[in-house]
Design goal:
It comes from Ixodes ricinus (Common tick). It is built from 16 helices and two strands. The chain is mostly helical. It has two domains: about 80 residues, no CATH class; about 300 residues, ABC transporter transmembrane region fold (Up-down Bundle), CATH 1.20.1560. The N terminus is likely disordered.
Amino acid sequence: ADYQARCFTMGWGLLPRLVFADTWRIVLLGYRNQLELPSLNPLGEDLKASTVSAAFLEATRKQKIRTCVDEKGVVVETSSYEKRPLSAVLLEVCRWEMFASALIEFFWILAGFVPPVMLGYLLVYIETKQDNWHGYAYASAYAFFQLVGGVLNAHAAYLMALGAYKVQSALTCALYKKVLRISSSSRRQYTAGEIMNLVSVDVEQVGQFLLLCHNCWGVPLRIVLTMVFLWKYLGPSCLATVATMLASTLVTTCVAHVCDKYQRRQMDSKDSRLRQTNEILNGIRVIKLNAWEPPFMERVKRTRSEELSAVKKYSILQSTFTFVWSATPHAAALASFGTFLMLSPANQLTPSIAFTCLSLFMLLRFPMYVLPDVLSRLIRCLGSVKRLSAFLEEAE
């Protein structure tokens, strides 16, 4: 029953579960007719907001049992409730999904290095004219691990999405409950716009980071494994790749700090704009009675212009950030091949070395592409968790 709640393909065979065969039925239904609620699979009990909210509340105040000996030598057990950090509570809410997706992600990373190795063996087979069965074996292994990698990637993404949605549901329910119970003194510290930002923006930021959270360890692992394989083919020349990546990291780190500054400025401007809009709507009668619409409109426009300016600068810097990381694999390949040829006249770029190394460099495209997004989401998530934790800890 627990597995059935987590996997909407329960009742199907192993192969349909692996390829999410039940989604084909939904796609065909949507193509032929308009999708309605009975057409969809019922939501599992552990994915419902009520269940997730109860698990969040239970994890927030976890019971701690202490055993001690009193003056008479009698063993006494005392229990108390201790408050836990919000990040630890959120991880406990989605611990099953995060653990399973991390395990699948690890095997997906390992499976991704088999096709380049098989490609190298295949090129050596062509150069040396080995028996035909060698070629068939290498080609079959290449295709098989490409397929396995795709399946593992899909299941890891599916489980991470489940975990992210559970966390978002738990946080949304907790915020709604807190708004109803918060004390008057604490309520005065938060405007309606700030509370709306907590529900609509900060909760979303946490969920968006969880979708890519495994890349925090997956990207370094992929880079290390790539360097190990490159050392096998290029030797010390692959250190030029490390130098290129360090230079890119230095540039993008500086850009990331500036991005964070403009993002905070944009959030402050957004809070100010929502606060001004709320004040205008509350006092709209007085404003219209005194014909104060133009000055108040200009005030909101000025705040909006500051917000748009921060968004524009942030977007430009984010584009620069992404461009540098996307160009890094190509620059690394150029630097490594150039260093390899200049180190010794005996070094030759045979097809097996060149194409295998190019395949390995292409494996760096994903980490280099996703790392800026992961760092950006991590920065935003940390800020969102801090704001959510501060609000949830207000007096009731």
